[in-house]
Amino acid sequence: MPKFRPIITSLLLLLSLKVFSRTYTNEEAKSAWAQLEGKKISEKNFKEACDLIQDVGQTNLNLAYQFLTEYFSVVKTTGNKQWLHVLLMNWARAKESLTAFDEADSLYRLARTNAIGHVKNYDEALVSTVLMYLEWGKGDSLEKYLKLGENSCRQNNDDESLSFIYTFKGLANMDDTASFRKYLDSAIVLAQKIADKNALFTAKYNRAVFYSQFNLQQQVTELGELQDLCKDPSLSHKPRFYERTAFYFRSPVPSIYYQLMLVNLMLTDYDNAWKFAELFYDATVKPNPTGAQAAPVNSVMAMVKAYQGAFDEAMNYLSKSFSLFNQQAGKISYPTYHLAAGMIAEHENRKKDALEEYELAYKNGSMAYGLHLMPPEIYYAHELIMNNQTDSARKLFAHLSAVLKTRTYSAIGFYYYKYYAELLKATNDNAGYNRAIEIFYTIKDSLSNINRYRAIQEVETKMRVHDKEQQIMMLNKENETKKRELRQQWAGILIFSALSALIIALLIAYARNQNHRKLQAEQIAHQNEVLQQHKIAEMRKQHRIEIMQGTIDAEENERYKIADQLHDEAGGMLALASLNISSAIEKGFDDLRAKEKIEKAHEILNDVSSTIRAISHRLTPLVIEKYGFKKAIEDMAQSINLSGKLKMQTTIIGFDDDKKYPIGLLNNIYRIIQELVHNILKHADALSAMIEVVEHEKQVAVMVEDDGIGIEDYPSSKGKGLQSIQAKIAYLNGKMQIEKKQDKGTLIVFEINVG
User: Fold this and answer.
1) Bridge pairing between strands 688-695 and 647-653
2) Is this prediction's pTM over 0.90?
């Protein structure tokens, strides 16, 4: 079972934000408490006592615990189990939020005992017990109470508590992706039937934050959907602690802001990260600038500003954080504070101070998860390199390799390879430096492409909004015109009716009836026309987005394939050639093997040249330019037949004059056919195949068929490749049809308009 402290702690700040109605001085609090102690306990003054304890806890936690301890003993003598349940659940939850798990464990045990005979209270106590053991990292106890909670909730038909149990069970099985998703989906299905959306938000939030954390684009989408769910009034309510004893996700809106800030930091999109950081700050710190959360949140704001390069503003936020922590900087245990301080010191070229701050951040805990996001090891290692302590830096990079496996294409991978390349350069490992810097630029390009696609989506959204505004303006103008026309008609009718009251009375009734029907018919027809046009425009825009996405995906896949081939084949051979030449140069031409090494390097370089020519041919098939499109298809089939892997027949009609087509169009058609043939070789398990290409006056028709296992039995990996092909064909103003043949094999036909 994974360790959950780094994860769950990141939520405690968000879950502990409370709305309070009054602030007490110590003297005022003690005076109010003395007045309550003298009264006989009733429902009314029980709530007053709870309010007082909750409000005092905002400024003096120890005094609030003193009142709670005294009051619990008094309430216990009444035998009122519901009052005891309220006190025990909130007392335990408060201790849990301060990581005083031993005390929380004892209080939850008392709550479960007190709730025996009251199924709803008992299930609530079990849910909170499960969450405590999840945060505590007590695997055996967690497993025990998960089973107990699931059985109890099922027997009591308590769907809300069971939904929470499934969410926490999913978090307990995060290492097993299938189980994690299964339990979260079960929690969502149960919660959707409940009017109160707290359980639904909890399940969807954990799916977005933890299950989708390694797919940043998916995570942005899911968090955006949660913003709509936040509008539900059952989530915006802020209960006093006697109003709700069940688990309750506090402050959902700030939580979403915070997670969107983290996702944008992971995408290295620092401007968008700051937008959500400001929203989070406004919702959490501005209402209570000296509250418990203000010091760490100001540190987070300083860190985001430092990422933006706004170091003066970062320093202002860090100064606020320092004054609120109210202790010596070296004794502040919050890692983000030291990370921000280190970034500022590095910017000011204070290398020694930067090294000390990054070391403090590292010693106060890894930040691979949670509020701090970036592992301090990366920055600490970077500063060690700047101070010529390369051995220590190398150990830190080795320590981060586990995190890097799932976070390569994110800010973590971006900075890891940026600074790891520094280490390799400092230690004269030129080959390693070249590999590291190549990976760094690949990650940088990937993150740029994601952010560029997000920018395209934003433009499309603005276009849709603009179109909608234009339609509304047009409708308003038309309505005004209709009103003016109607007023003019009425004026004429009134004048005419004054001349002949009796006859006109009949005509007015008739005219009004006809005009009303005509106006209604015109309005309905116009509204239907506007709605139809709007639907068509929306479908066109959606189709444009899908084509754009498919094209981006196709180009991205092609880029990765070429990058892999260059890295795995050409890169390795060049490194070997470099090694032979370096050896020959170092030992001189007197070395008996110098000639052999240089000849070997020459042979390798010839192989590299062949490989690069093959890649170049893949990018722009030269045979099309030299001998024509028909010859290129025939050469492809001949190569496949020579390999013996497949018997390939070709029928090509037309294409006697390629010059009437743009070379780019022919290259695209060639690549599509090449990819379809590649799919046959890879997936179809076929013995023979046929390509038929026919040139028509205004279109090119292509048919590719095989006698393999059929499209429905391909491995699951086929989907993305065929989607890319379909996107390319759509982009070329074409269409594609795929079907499984009745005997066996697959038939694929596509047509591309060229007229």
Assistant:
1) parallel
2) no
